[in-house]
Design a protein that fits this description.
The protein has helices at about 1-45, 50-75, 80-160, 180-220, 225-245, 265, 280-305, 310-320, 345-350, 355-365, 385-420, and strands at about 330, 335-340, 370, 375-380. The protein is mainly alpha-helical. It is rod-shaped, with a radius of gyration of 47 Å.
Length: about 425
Amino acid sequence: MTERWGLARLINRAQTSFVGLLRIWSIPIVVMLSIASGYTTYYGMSYFITWWIALIITIAIQSIIVIASLEIAGIHWKANRVRYLSVMLSLLIAVAASVTFSYFKFYEISEEKNIQLKHLASLRLSVEEYLDDAMQMSREVVAEQRGKTDEAAEEANQAYLGTHPEVTSRYRNQVGRGPFWRHYNQLYLKEKERLQALEQAAESLGRQVRALRERVARLATDTRNQKIYDQVAADLISVQSAFDALVLDDVRRVRSAPVLEPYDAFVQGVTPSFAMWDAFSLFAFLCAVMVDFFTILLSYRLEFTAPGPLSEHEQDMVYECLSQFSQLRINHNDELEIVIEKSPIEQARRYSDWSRMFGVAFLLSRGYLRKVGNRAVEFAPNLYPVIATRLARQVRSQRADQSGAGSDDVVRRLSRGADDVE
């Protein structure tokens, strides 16, 4: 029995210590959550007002959230409705402000990848449209020049055969390389030379276009690499120069290349603005609400639950007060329930229950009792070990008294026997 009693005491102490540690650990968690919420609130607010004013307002908001949560746990709605409503209103305003400005930061975090992809998609679209148009126009220019070259070759051939429309009747159908043929042959050679130059320029443009597309593809895999971005910008300028040189003689074909934004603007995230609420992000909103919700919940629990174990004097007082109640039962929660109103006999005797009602109020405020109605309260789990310890101590005291009384009886009987013998 002694070993079992020692094990049970050890388990009770371990459980009590664990619960106490959880309550103590709740304090730094509340502080950390408040700091995290304050950072996101300050980040969003600093884009709209001066930083030091934003910092002061942020500290005030987080302080109101924690203080109001603690006060609500200690305010009874029916006892002081005006105070309860005022504290609740202050809490709602502080939470609304915190969530509103925290939303901007979480929106930026959640949408950062999408924003980067949009920047990249915009860059690729504008570059691809320009390259497609440039390659199409270069092919058209080469095709037109090839047609001109073919026409010049045909005219030179007709001049050689004497069938050219402009040949006079005197030289018609005379085959030979006369002055007339040399003139058209010279025009043909010029067109052919121009065709070769355009084909070489188009081939060079094609190589530069392929290189630019490869750089853009590499940029898609590493958008944070400024070196690749600068190379894309340089290659785009080279392609534009090559294309302009190719279609220089045809002004109507000249097309302006897209202007790339600076690298800092390309990698910059979204700037907080109230326009973010138009493109509402449920994930960002829930994250902003979640931080403040946990802060409120833990702050409320800090005040609502028992702050710590009872002292020896408090345990004695609690046991004496609770032992004065006579109406006890096990309720539907499988907890010990006590009726705290006076019984009819106590009312008839005008019994003063001030001390035991003080004990009930004390335990309610410390979280060791839970109110289940206007007439009854029930034990919280952390109260059973306290009462069990006091009951065990009382049992041991009674047994010691009984054993002491029995030994005194034996002594008295032996003394009487000795007197009789004498």
